[in-house]
Amino acid sequence: MVIRSWRTLRSLAHRGGWGRVMRMVTTKPNRLLQLARHDARTFQEDQSRRFAAVGLEYGAAVAATRAALSGRRHGSEHYPLFAGWAEGRQGLDVLEIGTDTAEFSRFLAALPGVARVVTVDLPATDARYRAAVIRDGIEVARGLVPSQRSTNLTESKIEFVECNSIKLTWWDRRFDAIWVDGDHTNPVVTIDAVNALRLLRPGGLLAFDDVRLDDAWESRFGGAETWRTIDALQSTGLVDVQLIYKRMTPNFLAIPEIRKYIAVVRPATPGMERGD
After folding, report:
1. Which of 23, 180, 215, 251 has the fewest CB atoms within 10 Å around its CB?
2. More confident residue, 130 or 205
3. Would strands 200-211 and 175-180 be described as parallel, antiparallel, or unpaired?
4. Of 179-183, 203-207, 246-250, where does mean pLDDT reach its minimum?
């Protein structure tokens, strides 16, 4: 238990710095108890309820993920979210904003009900692209490196579009599901959200990655701007929102300040209901 707590503290320091961790420990000593008493089963049950709120059975969604990954399970919960939603459907067109290594693009293409995956990312010559793959002067190995994603993009169902996602403003193609995992800062995240709502077919799945709430620690990978955008849409009655946990490990769940969520967003008003 002590070893697990120490590993989690190191993980926290990696995200927020040791200074922030020490302030948390001294001002909120109950956080250490939370680490020691982390109950995985309670969070699993809560995640099941969160999936049920968007009409999915969690166990079946996890099973569909493992089937697509040849028995494995991915660490991020957007995999079972999309796998569970696609189960039993056919001819789905999916849009992904933020290709990264195209690992998720390839997973989507492996789902039986998916007919086409359109994935959008910045050109390598774009200054914001370079900012996304450089951290403290060092190129991040898992970043938006074309050589890493080239193999994944060979899947015939995948269409890769190299452009700034803001240009989706000019698109009129509709999609059955949209995954928003591009720039997590404004103004881009707000533009992506509005475009995604416009491009989503009625009854489709729209989800946003890496959602941090207002009390979460900001990091080099973004703060709460995605949540503030979604919350603003929700407060005006344009959408309904359900949050599911991004990851199910103690490192991410035991300390509220570093929890991340996936936001499932559904148009809520008749004005948003439109056909193709």
Report:
1. 215
2. 205
3. parallel
4. 246-250
What is d(CA 12, CA 254) in angstroms, rounded to the nearest whole number?
A: 11
Contact 156, 106 (CB under 8 A): no
Has residue 88 got a pLDDT over 90?
yes
What is the spatial distance between Cα 267 and Cα 234, in angstroms, rounded to a whole number? 9
Residue 218 CA to residue 224 CA, distance in Å, equals 7
Strand order in the sheet with 200-211: 158-162, 114-121, 92-97, 175-180, 200-211, 261-267, 239-245
Handedness of CA 40, 45, 49, 51 (dihedral sign): positive
Residue whose entry in the numeric block shows the structure tokens 């009625």: 202
Q: Which of 230, 250, 261 is nearest to 76 (CA)?
A: 261
**pLDDT average, residue stretch 54-64:** 97
Cα 255 from Cα 34, distance rounded (Å):
7
Which residues of the chain form beta strands (DSSP E)? 92-97, 114-121, 134-135, 138-139, 158-162, 175-180, 200-211, 239-245, 261-267
Residue 261, token pair as written in the block = 């969520």
Which residue shows structure tokens 């969604």?
61
Instruction: Report pLDDT for 75.
Output: 86
**pTM to 2 decimal places:** 0.83
SS3 222: strand
Closest Cα to residue 126, out of 178, 172, 167?
Answer: 167
Cis peptide, bond prior to residue 187, ω within 30 of zero: yes
Mean pLDDT of 116-136: 74
Query: Which residue type sits at 273?
Result: E
Q: Which residues pair with 121 in a beta bridge?
A: 162
Strand 200-211, strand 114-121: pairing: unpaired
Check residue 63 and give its pLDDT: 95
Q: What's the pLDDT score for residue 250? A: 76
